[in-house]
Design brief:
Blueprint: E1 12-16, H1 19-31, E2 38-42, E3 55-59, H2 70-84, E4 90-96, H3 101-105, E5 111-117, E6 120-127
Parallel strand pairs: 1-2, 3-4
Antiparallel strand pairs: 4-6, 5-6
């Protein structure tokens, strides 16, 4: 049985297509004392790729008031699905208020958890990967 390696350094990366969101995330990380523990980059989700074997993606894509154009939202979700599909050993956790997310993303979630952001119902769509611990440990 594998045991957790709590002394292992984590590779934490954060990205957004919007530079203002990156600046806000950096400020929040600085206030939390984590600025130097996270690599930030301005990047469209469709351009995301990795060679790491295992990992976790946590995404909070724009929804509700942050993005009003439904066609753009669905396109973003489709791009996420295409970018993340090859990452079968990775787990993905995506928070959105769009109940049509799974259809646009192109895959049914392993588990779906209902949450609230104030009065806005949001769901946490969980896609559990099948880690391959005998290779690179991301």
């Amino acid at each position: 049985m594998d045991q957790a390696d709590f002394d292992r350094e984590l590779d934490i990366q954060a990205s957004d297509i919007n530079g203002d969101m990156i600046d806000m995330a950096k400020l929040n990380a600085q206030q939390a004392g984590l600025l130097h523990s996270i690599q930030f980059k301005q990047l469209a989700v469709k351009d995301f790729s990795t060679t790491k074997e295992n990992g976790v993606i946590v995404a909070n894509p724009p929804y509700g008031k942050r993005l009003n154009d439904q066609a753009m939202v669905r396109q973003l979700y489709a791009e996420m699905g295409q970018a993340f599909a090859p990452l079968t050993t990775w787990s993905k956790y995506i928070l959105t208020s769009d109940m049509g997310f799974e259809k646009a993303y192109g895959s049914k979630a392993t588990k779906r958890r209902k949450l609230y952001n104030g009065t806005i119902r949001t769901d946490l769509f969980q896609y559990w990967g099948k880690p391959n611990w005998h290779h690179d440990r991301a």
